[in-house]
Every structure is written in structure tokens, then in C-alpha cells.
């Protein structure tokens, strides 16, 4: 019996989750409950469908030409892919052996031993920083960020390339003081290549409604272009590369 994973969906020609054209696998199950989550249907660890590593790897190989041409690869996203460390490690190991770039999209809220299984086969970590402040992090996600900070340090110590992703939510994660605090924190890590500022959007609201959930940020609008520009400037002024 091969190693199996429980996944939500697959995007075969993704361009938003790492460099180049990506084969993106959205895994099922997540320990966080982010107020702005646009994939609440991935929360349930028993949702989605089960697939064998062999089967999904064979699907990946069909797109290798596009990946090679564009400098792309495979991205494991979610949900939270580190909840299925054996599946993630085995899939990435096969990808690496086939010369396919691998990217892990994680919140960092996981056990370090699980990360340790996956990182040896990981070329890039897309690390989602939710909020620099401990109390506000709990309000925003339902969990504290102590484990997340420890895991970011662990990834950094392993020398794996990191792209930080930060969602700019008006009134919650966008104050200049907070962005300065974030910038000062991120400059402590040598493996961070860049910071991606992701504007908050409410495109996933219909999923919350379909699941019978109350969307907590219904009165918040996406940030303005000017607010995004200001946040990026603070990070740039601290010597961080921003996109």
C-alpha cells in the first residue's frame, strides 16, 4: 500500500503560488481559523478526497514540460499541508528525484518534527505570517503564534529559501506601527528572499455562507492601492525585497 493523502483540490496551471507555472495541490485540514480565510471548505481534516502519492505524482509528470519551460514546479498548499507530513515528504522526494521544483505553502502552525520530514525535499517555503502581535494573532486565527515563530526560525536555520506572505487587512494588519514591527522581525532571518503583500479580499464569503458560517469581516473592504504602497515602502525601507 502506498502513502495516501487527503486533498481538497488541484490546480494544474497555477501562477500565484511560487515561481513559474505550478501544479498546486490544496490539502485538506487546517488547525487555524483565520477570519479572512477564502478556503474554509479545507478546514475539515476528513473532507476532500483520498489519493495515493503514486497517482498524483503521475498527474504531475504530465505538466513537467510547462514547469521546466517556465521555471515552475509543484506547490503543496491547503488547508495546512504539514498536517500530512508523510504524504508531503514522499511526494516532494519523488518530485526532487525527477528534477521538479518544490514549494511548501504553510502557516507554520505545526510540529517541528513534521516540518523536519518535509524540508529536506523542499526548495522554497511560502510562509504565511498572519499577525506579529500575540494577542491579535489569537483573535485573528484562533491560535497563538509562538509555535509559528519557532518554526520560522527552524526553517531559516535549515537554509531553505523563504517567501513571506502577509495579508493586508484594513484596520487589523495594516497600521504603519504594525508593519514596522513586522519589518524589524523579518530582518532577523537570513533565508527570507522577499515579502509578498497580499491585499485582503472577500471573494470567499460565499463559501462561508454555503457552510452555514458567519463571516466575521463582512464590513471590511479591500485595502486601497495607496495603503498597499505605504506598507510596501515601510518594508522596502528596512531593506526587504517586496512584491
What would you note in describing this structure?
About 35% of the residues lie in helices and about 20% in strands. The chain is an alpha/beta fold. It has an eight-stranded mixed sheet with strand order 3-1-2-4-5-6-7-8. Helix 1 (about 55-60) packs parallel to helix 3, helix 3 packs parallel to helix 4 and helix 7 (about 175-185) packs parallel to helix 9 (about 225-235). It is globular, with a radius of gyration of 17 Å. The mean pLDDT is about 95.
Secondary structure blueprint with pairings:
Blueprint: E1 4-14, E2 22-27, E3 49-52, H1 53-61, H2 64-70, E4 73-77, H3 85-97, E5 101-106, H4 112-118, E6 124-129, H5 134-141, H6 146-157, E7 161-168, H7 176-186, E8 192-199, H8 205-210, H9 225-237
Parallel strand pairs: 2-4, 4-5, 5-6, 6-7, 7-8
Antiparallel strand pairs: 1-2, 1-3
Helix pairs in contact: 1-3, 3-4, 7-9
Keywords:
243 residues, alpha/beta, TIM Barrel, 8-stranded mixed sheet, 8 strands, globular
The gist of it:
The chain has one domain: TIM Barrel.
Amino acid at each position: 500500500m502506498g502513502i495516501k493523502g487527503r486533498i481538497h483540490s488541484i490546480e494544474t496551471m497555477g501562477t500565484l503560488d511560487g515561481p513559474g507555472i505550478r501544479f498546486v495541490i490544496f490539502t485538506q485540514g487546517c488547525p487555524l481559523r483565520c477570519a479572512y480565510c477564502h478556503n474554509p471548505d479545507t478546514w475539515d481534516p476528513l473532507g476532500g478526497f483520498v489519493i495515493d502519492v503514486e497517482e498524483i505524482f503521475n498527474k504531475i509528470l504530465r505538466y513537467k514540460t510547462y514547469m521546466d519551460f517556465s521555471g515552475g514546479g509543484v506547490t503543496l498548499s491547503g488547508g495546512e499541508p504539514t498536517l500530512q507530513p508523510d504524504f508531503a515528504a514522499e511526494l516532494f522526494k519523488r518530485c526532487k528525484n525527477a528534477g521538479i521544483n518544490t514549494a511548501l505553502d504553510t502557516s507554520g502552525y505545526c510540529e517541528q518534527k513534521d516540518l523536519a520530514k518535509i524540508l529536506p525535499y523542499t526548495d522554497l517555503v511560502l510562509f504565511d505570517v498572519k499577525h506579529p502581535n500575540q494577542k491579535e494573532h489569537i483573535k485573528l486565527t484562533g491560535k497563538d503564534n509562538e509555535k509559528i515563530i519557532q518554526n520560522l526560525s527552524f526553517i531559516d536555520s535549515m537554509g531553505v529559501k523563504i517567501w513571506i506572505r502577509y495579508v493586508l487587512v484594513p484596520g487589523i494588519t495594516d497600521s504603519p506601527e504594525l508593519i514596522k514591527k513586522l519589518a524589524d522581525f523579518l530582518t532577523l532571518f537570513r533565508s527570507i528572499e522577499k515579502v509578498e503583500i497580499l491585499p485582503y479580499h472577500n471573494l470567499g464569503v460565499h463559501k462561508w455562507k454555503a457552510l452555514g458560517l458567519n463571516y466575521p469581516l463582512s464590513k471590511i473592504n479591500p485595502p486601497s492601492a495607496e495603503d498597499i504602497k505605504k506598507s510596501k515602502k515601510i518594508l522596502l525601507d528596512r531593506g526587504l525585497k517586496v512584491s
